[in-house]
Write a structure and sequence with these properties.
Layout: H1 3-12, H2 18-27, H3 30-33, H4 41-60, H5 65-79, H6 84-99, H7 112-120, E1 125-127, E2 130-132, H8 134-147, H9 155-162, H10 169-182, H11 191-201, H12 207-224, H13 231-251, H14 253-265, H15 272-281, H16 285-310, H17 313-318, H18 325-335, H19 341-358, H20 380-398, H21 403-416, H22 423-435, H23 437-442, H24 444-451, H25 459-473, H26 477-491, H27 496-512, H28 521-524, E3 539-540, E4 545-546, H29 563-578, H30 585-601, H31 606-620, E5 637-640, E6 643-646, H32 650-671, H33 678-707, H34 725-752, H35 756-779, H36 795-806, H37 811-821, H38 824-844, H39 855-875, H40 878-882, H41 892-910, H42 915-923, H43 933-953, H44 961-975, H45 983-998, E7 1000-1001, H46 1004-1018, H47 1025-1039, E8 1057-1058, H48 1063-1090, H49 1097-1102, H50 1109-1129, H51 1137-1162, H52 1169-1197, H53 1203-1224, H54 1239-1254, H55 1257-1263
Parallel strand pairs: 7-8
Antiparallel strand pairs: 1-2, 3-4, 5-6
Helix pairs in contact: 4-5, 4-6, 6-7, 6-8, 7-8, 8-10, 9-11, 10-12, 11-13, 12-13, 12-14, 13-14, 13-15, 15-18, 15-19, 16-20, 18-20, 19-20, 20-22, 21-22, 22-25, 24-26, 25-27, 26-27, 27-29, 27-30, 30-32, 31-32, 31-33, 32-34, 33-35, 34-35, 35-37, 36-38, 36-39, 38-41, 39-41, 39-42, 41-44, 42-43, ...
């Protein structure tokens, strides 16, 4: 093409003259536009010029997309014809444009891969003063490009472009690092497409790096975006990114495998985003099992690690407390509300996996430890189960699509898991009912289907299920009708549990369908609407209102359920329940235990209930006043063949009658001042009949039971109480009579109004009770449990009785109360019953009798009892009470102290949030309510410290081992409530150390308790290894060396005054603590090994400077422990459990040393000097003594024990890996491996190494 034509074309290419350019070009002939060949310099330069003009033109955006694509397509076809220099210039043009940010649209970047591919095929290109091959030139260009600054607008285009560029592994890694760094410079909305392109690029390699980079970015964004307006945008972006990754993993199995490796290698670096990603990927079937197993294991490991750290100040100071994995999972649940539908299914699955795997397990004979509603999750497995419940509950609240599935799975488990406890699923169902009751009504058919299985479910499951769904019965007529139908069928079930389930259901309905005119529940007990259970806080039914979703539950109950209908409904149920009075004792017992609560919550049913009880009492009451006994015991038992069994729980019948009568009379008295007119008089005439008759019956029974002798019940000292039919009958009689006496004691105390004569009668009742109780204890037989039957006194009465006996100082009552106070047996009985009630509360979360299920009332009674017991113990110490007494019975003060121990333990377990209230109640009006919990605890700790100090300061004859043990246990329980960083905690541990040093450990049980307290405090204050060393020295000094017999002059007592009696106990405690320290060391090494990343090992080996603090602390801990064990292996320990335990701990020690050496072989420490001292301690000191100790044990035992070969094997394994390490490092070389070499040879070998180690430690580190 001639120059003039070219100039013409260029001049017409101005934007305003385009039509002229088109006309001119169409006028040219083929000869005029024929180009020079690309091999010619002119042709090459012209083509290059064309490329240089077309590329900016395509990027300008002035062309239509189709036109620009056609131009780029034509240029691609000609690229391979360009010579090398032109390609190099063209590539430089692209690189410069990218650096200057001129690649806005990125359209021309489609051409760049073709240019680079053609360039790589070039044999040689000039570069600077020399030449490079095309491949090397391409590498230089890519390096220059990735090292330069990229315009954020072109990052996505560049990532897309590089997918078509052949890249070496190192080039790809360099590129991926560059793109990941650019994440922080992009807007959030640009992240998902970039993630998508990056995942496509990962098909070339660097899959793990890509995944970790994406996760790391979102983890950082989570931390930066908390409480900022962009958090919603971030969540949506995260959801889209997760979808892209899951899609990529579905298509690329290799990417999935890399993802699994990545998450398993960084367990401590999980975040809400990575957890959501895990749950989404888990929906892919081939990864499901692996990922859920990983999550389950990681969760339990996280809880175990937290548990271990919380119990060790050493670990708390060493490792920072990371964000809880459980909290991150719950954050994932919250984040999933932003359209993360792909995550919710995984959350549901994870929640049920955790609840199934870590729920309560059935114990021996199908029993399980009962957890009350207020019990806190303590163990890692309990915490994991609780986390599963929280996941499902929060998911249920937030996501409508999964609600049906969650409810169905919960109900299915209640029906199918009959052999294992399901309390955790019942708790979850209860929480679901509270959070979304109207949602559940939409799925009422699933609930009613579950009702069909009630007859076949365990009683505990039925009770929990019915309590959980009870709020729904108030607003769903169909559900209520379905339940009634099922309960009526169950009433005639052939299975005992089925009939008991029917009674449970009917009693529940009676409690919650109130009849018009019934007292408001608040009049019976404060803050109580329809349930005492803490599961229903914040809900009030009648209309049914829920604080979680008030708008959902505005239901006009009265349009369906009016009070008149309720009355007929309740009377019909009562009629059904009366049939139960002819069934087995277990069914009757449930009825008697439930009537009182029904009466309190539905007072209009009082007449029917009282008449029912009266007619039942008449059956067993002897109306002839001159006949003894006043009850027909023979009707209370049944027989079938040789078997004798209880037919009527008479004592419980009387207890129910008494409590209902007393409550009814109190209710009538409180209502009478507010009522007037003849209606009230008519009611009194109508209902006074059963009151008068019941009162006269109870008075008659009281009067005649006082006159009764044991012979009247066919019971006396000669009566048989064996397992024969006669013995069983006598045992049943005895328990019934004792129960009747207890019921009468409570009734008559309440009615006595502090009358001296009536209290004397009450004491007569007790003397009869006590006489029978003593016979039962005596006849229980040697070697058998002498546990007395559970008392029928109510918790409220026990509280009232103790207050009257110990704290009532009113002059008008003093004479009457003196009658009761003068009986030591009665005082002991009252405190013993209180102990029994508190123990039951601690174990089950509730007590028998009225208000036993009411958490608030029970806690109130507990506070009153605590105050009384504390006053009694502090004002009348055991020493004062026991002075001059020859009887060996447990003193009242000692029983009070034991009660305080049980109360503090119960408060910690069942009422952790109300400990401050409990402590405030102890002091009554004198308590400083403004003091902190720590200050209140410290105040009472000082009181018990003084009591213990008084015990230890007295003479040997004044020392009470049991009292001292209880005091130590109380101090232990209270000290757990102190904050370890508080001044009060420091004072506590200082006092404990002082007591230990000044006390002579004569009493074994007391010694064990005191040292256990010392260790439990010490681990929360600092590492106990130095204390262990001191104790080991003391044990060594007491028992002497294994090769000599100790004499009195050889013994020098160090930290504590150990005696021969307690040495074995102390040694075992020390070894137990050694085991815990070894656990911590082993955990630390495992933690460090888990942090090793193969890609970073080279950096770790080259890193110089100060030693890692964890490694330093670990080696110091282990070194001190080796020194302590060195003392024990030289000690002449008594053969048996002490020597076997020590051999086991030595074996563990060498196993952990081996693990440490293996760790150092993989990732050398920044300084091997500390390890060298471990080797020196073990090789020169401990190992030789171990072999001597083995010889000593063999001589003492005269037989083989497995512990010895295990120890020898552990020592040999340790030495084997130590030799391997010595080949890698000169530091440990030359240390004697065989402990049996002479000490002189050993020290000379070490001496030859020491100068090299001690001169310039820093230089040694640099060489590494």
């Amino acid at each position: 093409m001639r120059a003039d034509i070219m100039e013409k074309i260029v001049s017409l290419s101005d934007g305003e003259r385009i039509p002229e350019l088109q006309q001119y070009l169409s006028s040219l002939t083929d000869d005029q536009v024929t180009s020079s060949p690309p091999s010619a310099p002119e042709g090459a330069s012209r083509r290059l010029l064309l490329y240089q003009h077309c590329i900016p033109l395509c990027e300008s955006g002035d062309l239509q997309t189709e036109v620009a694509s056609d131009i780029i397509g034509l240029l691609m076809l000609e690229t391979h014809n360009l010579p090398g220099p032109s390609l190099a210039q063209l590539a430089s043009l692209f690189v410069d444009a990218i650096k200057l940010g001129k690649m806005g649209s990125g359209k021309s970047l489609e051409l760049f891969p073709t240019v680079l591919t053609a360039l790589a095929a070039t044999e040689a290109l000039s570069y600077g003063k020399g030449e490079l091959s095309g491949e090397e030139y391409k590498k230089q260009l890519i390096n220059s490009l990735c090292s330069s600054r990229w315009d954020p607008q072109c990052v996505i285009h560049l990532t897309t472009m590089f997918r078509d560029v052949p890249l070496a592994p190192e080039e790809l890694q360099f590129l991926v690092e560059k793109v990941l760094r650019m994440f922080l410079k992009l807007d959030l909305q640009e992240i998902p497409p970039l993630v998508y392109q990056l995942l496509l690029l990962a098909a070339k390699g660097c899959k793990k790096q890509v995944l970790e980079g994406i996760i790391s970015y979102f983890k950082e964004q989570d931390l930066l975006s908390i409480m900022t307006p962009i958090i919603h945008n971030l969540r949506h972006v995260e959801g889209t990114a997760i979808l892209h990754i899951v899609f990529a993993v579905r298509l690329d199995q290799e990417l999935g495998r890399e993802f699994l490796k990545s998450v398993k290698g960084c367990q401590g670096e999980l975040c809400p985003f990575s957890i959501a990603l895990l749950l989404s990927v888990a929906r892919i079937q081939r990864y499901e099992e692996q990922l859920f197993d990983f999550l389950k294991g990681t969760i339990t490991k996280g809880f175990k690690d937290e548990h271990l750290q919380q119990g060790s100040k050493f670990l708390q100071d060493l490792l920072p407390q990371r964000c809880s994995l459980a909290q991150m999972i719950l954050d994932t649940v919250k984040n999933s509300v932003f359209g993360w539908d792909h995550v919710t299914q995984g959350l549901v699955q994870l929640g049920f996996i955790l609840m199934d795997a870590f729920g309560p397990k059935a114990g021996p004979f199908g029993k399980t430890a009962t957890e009350g509603a207020n019990a806190t999750a303590k163990t890692p497995t309990q915490q994991a189960c609780r986390l599963g419940g929280h996941i499902l509950l929060e998911g249920f609240k937030m996501h409508e699509p999964i609600r049906g599935e969650i409810l169905e799975q919960v109900l299915n488990r209640l029906v199918t898991k009959t052999a294992s406890p399901v309390t955790h699923f019942i708790d979850l169902l209860s929480d679901i009912v509270v959070s979304a009751p109207m949602i559940l009504l939409e799925s009422s058919s699933k609930v009613t289907e579950t009702f069909d299985h009630l007859s076949y479910l365990p009683l505990a499951t039925v009770q929990g299920l019915l309590k959980a769904v009870q709020p729904l019965l108030k607003v769903s007529m169909s559900m209520k009708d379905a339940l009634i139908l099922v309960l009526r069928k169950a009433m005639f079930s052939s299975q005992l549990d089925g009939r008991k389930s029917a009674v449970t259901g009917f009693l529940l309905l009676l409690k919650n369908f109130r009849v018009l005119g019934s007292m408001a529940s608040s009049q019976c007990t404060p803050a109580l609407s329809f349930m005492y259970s803490s599961h229903y806080e914040g809900i009030s039914i009648g209309p049914f209102i829920c604080d979680v979703s008030c708008a959902q539950v505005q239901v006009d109950v009265h349009s369906r359920y009016n009070s008149a209908a309720n009355e007929a409904f309740c009377l019909e149920i009562l009629s059904s329940l009366r049939r139960c009075l002819g069934q087995q004792a277990d069914v009757r017992l449930m009825l008697y235990e439930g009537f009182h609560d029904v009466l309190r919550r539905n007072s209009q049913l009082a007449s029917s209930i009282m008449q029912t009880l009266l007619s039942q009492v008449r059956r067993y009451y002897e109306p002839e006043q001159d006949l003894l006994p006043p009850v027909k015991l023979e009707l209370c038992i049944g027989a079938q063949g040789d078997q004798v069994f209880l037919q009527e729980p008479l004592a419980h019948l009387l207890s129910c009658t008494v409590h209902c009568l007393l409550w009814y009379q109190g209710m009538r008295r409180s209502a009478r001042p507010n009522a007037g007119g003849s209606d009230n008089d008519d009611d009194d005439e109508e209902e006074g009949g059963f009151q008068d008759e019941l009162q006269s019956i109870l008075e008659s029974i009281t009067r005649r039971m006082i006159k009764c002798e044991l012979e009247d019940f066919e019971l006396d000292k000669s009566a048989e109480f064996s397992l024969s039919s006669v013995g069983v009958k006598n045992s049943i009689y005895a328990v019934l009579v004792m129960g009747v006496y207890e019921v009468l004691i409570e009734y008559n105390f309440t009615k006595a109004n502090y009358s001296k004569s009536l209290f004397e009668e009450l004491l007569e009742l007790f003397s009869r009770y006590n006489k029978l109780s003593e016979i039962l204890k005596e006849k229980s037989g040697k070697g058998k449990s002498s546990k007395s039957p559970r008392s029928l006194l109510s918790m409220g009465f026990v509280s009232t009785l103790l207050t009257a006996l110990f704290r009532d100082s009113a002059q008008s009552r003093e004479e009457a109360l003196l009658v009761l106070r003068s009986s030591g047996d009665f005082l002991r009985y009252a405190v013993n019953v209180a102990l029994q009630k508190i123990t039951q509360l601690e174990e089950t979360g509730h007590t028998d009798g009225p208000d036993g299920q009411n958490t608030d009332k029970t806690f109130h009674h507990l506070c009153d009892i605590t105050s009384v017991l504390m006053w009694r113990y502090t004002n009348i110490p055991c020493a004062v009470e026991d002075a001059g007494k020859k009887e060996k019975r447990c003193s009242v003060s000692l029983l009070c102290l034991e009660g305080l121990l049980r109360i503090f333990s119960t408060g910690q377990q069942r009422y952790p949030a109300r400990v401050a209230q409990l402590l405030s109640a102890i002091g009554g009006t004198h308590t400083n309510w403004n003091a902190s919990v720590t200050e209140k605890i410290a105040f009472y700790i000082r009181q018990f410290q003084r009591a213990l100090f008084t015990q230890l300061s007295g003479g040997e004859e004044d020392f009470s081992s049991k009292e001292a043990q209880i005091l130590v246990n109380i101090l232990s329980v209270l000290s757990r409530q102190l904050e370890p960083s508080s001044q009060q905690f420091v004072q506590m541990i200082t006092w404990t150390v002082k007591i230990c040093k000044e006390t002579s450990f004569e009493d074994i049980a007391f010694s064990k308790g005191l040292l256990s307290l010392l260790f439990s405090l010490h681990v929360l204050y600092k590492s106990p290894v130095s204390l262990l060393w001191e104790l080991c020295q003391d044990i060594h000094s007491q028992l002497g060396d294994i090769d000599q017999v100790p004499t009195a002059t050889d013994r020098t007592v160090s930290p504590g005054n150990l005696t021969d009696n307690s040495l074995q106990t102390v040694t075992l405690l020390v070894l137990s603590q050694v085991g815990k320290v070894l656990d911590e060391v082993d955990w630390l090494i495992t933690k460090k090994k888990g942090q090793l990343v193969p890609d970073r090992l080279s950096d770790a080996t080259q890193a110089a400077g100060q030693q890692d603090p964890v490694e330093k602390a670990l080696t110091l801990q282990l070194g001190t422990l080796l020194t302590a064990l060195n003392e024990l292996v030289q000690t002449a320990l008594p053969s048996g459990v002490c020597t076997n335990t020590l051999l086991g701990e030595l074996s563990r020690t060498y196993t952990i040393l081996t693990t440490l050496v293996k760790y150092v072989c993989v990732c050398p420490l920044k300084s091997l000097i500390p390890l060298y001292f471990q080797v020196k301690l073990s090789g020169s000191h401990l190992t030789p003594q171990c072999y001597s100790f083995i010889t000593y044990v063999q001589a003492k035992l005269l037989r083989e024990t497995k512990a010895i070969p295990n120890l020898i094997y552990s020592i040999e394994q340790y030495e084997k890996y130590l030799i391997t390490l010595s080949k890698k490092s000169k530091v440990c070389k030359g240390v004697v491996w065989d402990g049996r070499l002479s000490h002189i040879e050993l020290m000379s070998t070490i001496a030859s190494q020491e100068p090299e180690q001690s001169q310039e430690p820093k230089k040694k580190r640099k060489k590494q």
